[in-house]
Structure prediction request, 379 residues.
Amino acid sequence: MTAALPRRRICFVLPSLAGGGAERAAVQILNGLDGDVWDRTMYLFSREGPYLGDVDAGVTVASGARASRLGRWLDLRRSLRASRPEIVVAFLSYFTVLTAARAAGVGTRVVFNQQTPLSAFLDDADYGWRGRGAQALFTTVARWAYAAADLVIATSTGVADDLRQRLGVDATKLRVIPNPVDLDAVRAGATEPLDPAHAAAWRAPVIVAAGRLAEAKNYPLLIEALALVRERVPATLFVLGQGDQASALQALARARGVEDAIVWCGFQSNPWKYMARADVFALTSRYEGFGNVLVEAMACGVPVVATASPGTRDIVEDGVSGRLVEAHTAEAVAEGLLAVLTDPAAQGQLAEGARHSSEKYGRDPVASRYGAVLQEARA
Prediction:
């Protein structure tokens, strides 16, 4: 009898499992990797977040005890020395993970998972970049870190292109793999009933949007577009998400006369029951590295209208699975929404195209691609 080969030790490192696209993607990828091939660990600087319960029982979850930056670094180094993973995949906190892995001295290969276009991140007001000095320092450190990593996985072609152009990342180190989506979970969640209060407010045609109420998501653009749409169609907008811009967005809705046409639903653990009942799903972000919610809406069989950015260009095929809006203006977004809402035949065709397009982002095919690339990094 041939002895079974030892499993390869891999560790995903994240700050926490607080709700976000990167965190959800990390859980799905690690869950999807073959447990017979990989000895899987997830290391968290802080053991918290809504996705903790989604981690597969076959994944070991480890965490540090200290809150300071130096403490987190020391805890991670100690953990890596003890567990000796062959590969560490960093989701965020790249510099900390890279230096801790090198300092552990156990020959660990380091892979970065890049979820966002770096140029857009540096221009994002949510992250408090002020002046050229901070950006220049960050860019200098990032150039070194990305050059020192063994491999970089980007979520979209646009993210990879941005890394080459902004940081000069060697193209031979870059691989493009999209985020996975648990299509079975999405479709099961889509069948659940709406909350009674939201069901009572559901007045067709309905536009659904989902994402944190933050500057990068550009909800003011969607509100302005809704005001134009309602000049022709009595659409209702359901917004799924929370954030520090909530009060300002509600004030804008009042100023534009669409306050009664928007239902603010807050964070929803199951956004898919809303998406599945919508006539169209809208995403008006200033930028996206991928756009998980687009794939989720598409999996629900809903046409999508999205502003063009590095991530959305890879997902939305204009006229096939939805409408891709190149101009980030209220007029252009309204035109895209109306093209779906006023043409039932086109809406049906786009819905079918969306559902078909979502299949390639399923957890198993994406995890298989990750497995192949991680084997490459190990070699």
Observations:
- The chain has a mean pLDDT of 92.
